[in-house]
Amino acid sequence: MKVGYQEKVQEEVQEKYVVWHIEGGLGKNIAATSLLSTIKNKYPDRKFIMVASYPEIFLNFPEIDRVYPVGHSPYFYQDYIEDKDTVVLKHEGYFQSGHINKQQHLIQSWCELFNLEYTNQQPVLLPNMIQKQFMFNWTREKPVMVLHTNGGAIQDNNSYSWTRDMPPALAMHIIEKYSQDYHILQICKNQNQVYPGVEAITQPLTNFELVSILAVSQKRVLIDSSLQHAAAAMKLPSTVLWVGTSPKVFGYDLHNNIKSNPPKHKPKLLTSYLFDYDFVGDPVQCPYDDVFEMFDFKKVTDAIDRI
């Protein structure tokens, strides 16, 4: 009887957990913040454990009890899995039919996987006191325009991904039109092309140093990368250019989303499996003859002027 009583007491005080494991880029991690409150409301009696590829994004949320970087989770199994009452959310939204068929937003795909109600949740960023001060590093004499020309993973052999990056000719057109009135901060990586008439931000930054650039900007011209997710989280309407990816899947209605024109030629997708275009911009897949076929430059600048 005594052993049974001890076991019952241990069972009653056993802590419960919900673990969300998310991998991928910074933008995907920012998008995931949209569901933190939803998950916590579904599991209010469980401690919320995040395992994330960009843990800094999640550290300031009151819903989260502990954050681990992907690949750096010592004793995790013994602490949260072995003989524990734990719900594990490690499903990949990218492989939902609705996502593959470009029928719904990534956030909605996560909701379906986790049996959550989708209510058009939006991402949120919670910088702490010091992180809020990063924005003062980016104030300039003229109004600031953020031009995010290149993003995503670093490519060894090709610094321009035609499926996601801003076409160089279009970037130069924007710079020529707005450089007299705006101090243009170009966001790119070291191996990317830096344009005349801009201040290039190529140095490594923390996540909140990067997104703080948006806080001082009057205009934002972005691509499907981390900053368009961050701008949505910060409620900063932006002009966002889309080529090989879809605003229906990754975008936000807050933004002025400019989709590239349909190509004249049928794409050559020999190596494509579940998705049409590779994020890294395989040159063989490009169906366009020139950048003017891809985008109407006036349509883009008209959109910039409206925001």
Overview in brief:
With 307 residues, the chain is α/β, with parallel strands linked by helices.
Give structural notes:
There is one protein chain. 31% of the residues lie in helices and 16% in strands. It contains 13 helices and 10 strands. The chain has helices spanning 2-13, 26-32, 36-42, 76-81, 97-100, 106-114, 129-132, 168-178, 207-215, 226-233, 247-250, 291-294, 297-306, and strands spanning 16-22, 47-52, 66-69, 85-89, 144-148, 183-187, 199-201, 217-223, 239-242, 256-259. The strands form 2 sheets. The chain has a 6-stranded parallel β-sheet, with helices on both faces. A 4-stranded parallel β-sheet has the order 3-2-1-4, with helices on one face. Helix 11 (247-250) links the parallel strand 9 and strand 10. The mean pLDDT is 93.
CATH topology of the largest domain: Rossmann fold
Low-confidence stretches: none
What spatial order of strands do you see in the largest sheet?
7-6-5-8-9-10
Number of domains: 2
Shape: globular
Question: In this structure, how is the largest beta sheet organized?
Answer: 6 strands, parallel
Tell me which CATH architecture of the largest domain applies here.
Answer: 3-Layer(aba) Sandwich
Oligomer: single chain
- The ordered H/E elements are HEHHEEHEHHHEHEEHEHEHEHH
Strand content: 15-25%
The end-to-end distance, rounded to whole angstroms, is 72 Å
Mean pLDDT: 93
User: What is the strand tally?
Assistant: 10
Radius of gyration: 22 Å
Helix-and-strand structural type: alpha/beta
* The CATH class of the largest domain: Alpha Beta
Question: How many helices in DSSP terms?
Answer: 13
Helix content: 25-40%
